[in-house]
Amino acid sequence: MGKSIPLLLVLFSILICGLYYGPITANPNDTPPSFEDGFTEVGYKSVKKAVKEFENHFKSNVKLPEILPSISFTHQFGRFFEDKNYKVNDSLEIRFVNKDIRENIFKIDIRLSKNKLNFKDKLNFNGKEYTLQDGTKAIYFEGRLFNFFVFEKNNLQYLLGIHNKVANAATPETLVRIANSIK
Known about the structure:
Number of strands: 7
Strand order of the largest sheet: 1-2-3-7-6-5-4
Distance between the termini: 85 Å
Strand content: 25-35%
Helix content: 25-40%
Largest sheet: 7 strands, antiparallel
Radius of gyration: 25 Å
Shape: globular
Number of helices: 4
């Protein structure tokens, strides 16, 4: 008898909760957002539209690389971020992704050179300096998730990033070729 009382209390609690909260039902029409919707929900759109927003905002012309890393991408998205508070963090973000291979990510972040981020300290740690065909200096460094290549061209700062799990497809020399393809 003593052992059945806790069991009866548990069953009684379940019954009371079931009556109080009611049945739990799932809507069979609920579907998770699509891969594309996940990007759209955070402000990404077509690369063309995002570039146009950046260009219109700054009255400038954005040049993108003519070549990309040799990994497969299923989608590309762009987003223009306008820093309405401080006016110095405006940027254009472009993402090349693969919905089936999550590590296949190549990103390009662009901002005005006058509002550039400083990466010179990366040379003191694990960075290396490269020179582009036009004499522009660039810095390559490895981060926790991405390997980065930073340089300035046409009054813009470019930050190229490749997920480090596929970085062998985009060595620093490959990133130099990609940077040189921006005319």
